[in-house]
Design a protein that fits this description.
The protein is mostly helical. The chain contains 1 helix and no strands. It has one domain (1-32).
């Protein structure tokens, strides 16, 4: 069985990636 850490890590990575994309999108919009 998977440990909790093994389940949480990919989810956290995905959340960070989505947040970075959202932040980048906002930055691009501000620069236009």
């Amino acid at each position: 069985s998977l440990g909790l850490q093994e389940l949480v890590e990919p989810i956290k990575d995905t959340a960070v990636t989505l947040k970075n994309l959202a932040d980048g999108k906002q930055s691009v919009e501000l620069n236009l």
